[in-house]
Amino acid sequence: LAWNRESVGQGDLVNGPTNPHAKLRLFGSKEKPRVMLFRDQSAWCPYCQKVWLMLEEKRIPYEVRKVNMRCYGPKESWYLKIVPNGMLPAMLLDGKLYTESDRIMQILENE
User: Fold this and answer.
1) 45 among known catalytic residues
2) Would the pTM count as exceeding 0.90?
């Protein structure tokens, strides 16, 4: 069997339908995203999911960096330099860090 993105329904990860494998979502925008979302590798953390779904629903362009959850082992050192307590999700908006899913959603709602 030959497996590729089209054969498993992934298609256009940047501008197409929502997909947990996407690392960049532009929704047709040509601008560099102002948002960097740090979320879990497996896409099953409910706190990460609600932020992710809000970005998708509001069609806010964003980049994704995936981070190990502690149940899969230690957090990556690069992430702990950004978020010392290792919390997920986290978001950089115009270079400013936000943690706590409800706070992130509040910030996004006001954008």
Assistant:
1) yes
2) no
